[in-house]
Specification:
Strand order of the largest sheet: 1-2-3-4
CATH architecture: Roll
CATH class: Mainly Beta
Number of domains: 1
Order of helices and strands: EEEEHEEEEH
Number of helices: 2
């Protein structure tokens, strides 16, 4: 884990961790499973600073307006879909996508964690 980590309970089955290592300018999303029979690696996604800012912006817009969003930059392609019980976030192409389902109870904490990580990596000076 990096210097700063935020933990978000996605459900009783897993937890999402967002962290920022002190030595690089990227945010990482890791998943912790209480059981992992398929030996799935915990790293969900790694984003650079600009991709983290764009993903955070689109995620907040998706939650606030309750409509689907697409994050397409040179480094990443993420689709955010709004469901009745939460949010479906799809990282990567349709052929080899990684799916993340988040409930409505934790989505604002995920947004806050992403924004805090982006602010930690590149803080904006106050007036």
């Amino acid at each position: 884990m990096g210097d700063v980590a935020a933990r978000f309970n996605a459900s009783n089955a897993s937890a999402l961790f967002v962290s920022a290592p002190a030595t690089c300018f990227a945010a990482s999303g890791d998943i912790a499973y209480p059981f992992n029979q398929s030996h799935t690696p915990p790293r969900l996604i790694s984003l650079d600073l600009e991709d983290t800012k764009e993903f955070s912006r689109r995620l907040i817009e998706a939650v606030h307006c309750a409509r689907a969003q697409l994050v397409a930059t040179s480094g990443v392609r993420i689709s955010i879909n709004v469901n009745a019980n939460g949010y479906h976030i799809q990282f990567g192409d349709m052929n080899s996508a990684i799916d993340l389902f988040l409930g409505t109870s934790c989505i604002w904490r995920v947004c806050q964690g992403l924004l805090r990580i982006a602010d930690l990596i590149a803080p904006i000076e106050s007036n």
